[in-house]
Amino acid sequence: MENKKGIIATYGSIILNILLFGIKFWAGMVSSSVAIIADAWHTLSDSISSVAVLIGLKVSAKPADKEHPYGHGRAEVLASIVVGMLLAIIGFSFLKESIVKLQSRSEVEYGMVAIVVTIVSLLVKEFMAQYSIRIGHKTKSKSMVADGWHHRSDAISSLVILVGIFFGQYYWWIDGVLGILVSLLLFYTTYSILKENISHLLGERIDDDLRGEIIALAPEVADFDIHPHHFLVHQYGHHTEMTLHIRLPGDYSIKRAHDIATAYEVIIKKRTNIQATVHIDSLDV
């Protein structure tokens, strides 16, 4: 159900981006504004990133199979990385264009059509950003959050153009300087998205709060300290696997030790929705 919400939201994103592209491209042609036309193509690139997110959501929703026993959840992580790379490309394009504007000391002239379309684009793209990020957090979809930031980058670029409209007639350099600032913001967003998702692919240490929560569950399966340790966490999208060790007396029967380990796995699954595998060490060692 949660994955379905993300897919519906992504379809809506693709449709809105295509409509915005057409309107902004028309406004750019009418006002002879290269900036508006470039911003239109930036909007169209959002549709490309949304398609990548859509593919990631659909693939990640596929159940586990023989070739992929842990499911297909990491397809979303890969989609997020694609979105991050697209943001980097857009950021570089903004940076290059801004430097050229400063070097040529070129001024920007906009008409009323450009003003109206830019304001509409700014409002719509910010709404799309907030909606995608909210749905992404609700459904725990990293690719949707990344796509939301992609929408926000388009809203910021529209804001830059809007600022240029009102202040560009007084300061010839403002469009170029603001473009560089936007580029730096896009690079930072790219860094944040790639850092988080590549870290998931490489594997991460267990969160201290989660470790404490797992340890706190131990007294519910044994009346002595079983020393939970050696935690390893593997994330596959919405599915998380964990391995950990516990210590039991060496004279315990296999069945008794197995029952304690199984009870621990069951309660971890129930309380945290994490599939745990418990390895038994001997207290006598």
From TrEMBL:
One GO location term (cellular component): membrane
Spans through the membrane: 7-27, 77-95, 110-133, 177-194
What is the membrane topology noted in the UniProt record heading this document? Multi-pass membrane protein
Q: One Pfam match, by short name? A: Cation_efflux
Top-level lineage group: Bacteria
Q: Where does the protein end up?
A: Membrane
| Keyword field | Membrane, Transmembrane, Transmembrane helix, Transport
| Record-annotated Cation efflux protein cytoplasmic domain positions | 208-281
Q: Name one GO molecular function term.
A: monoatomic cation transmembrane transporter activity
Primary location recorded for the protein, binned into one broad class: membrane
Occurrences of domain Cation efflux protein transmembrane (ranges): 13-202
Which protein family is it in? Belongs to the cation diffusion facilitator (CDF) transporter (TC 2.A.4) family.
Q: Which NCBIfam families match?
A: CDF (TIGR01297)
Annotated protein name in UniProt: Cation transporter
**What organism, scientifically named, is this protein from?**
Carboxylicivirga sediminis
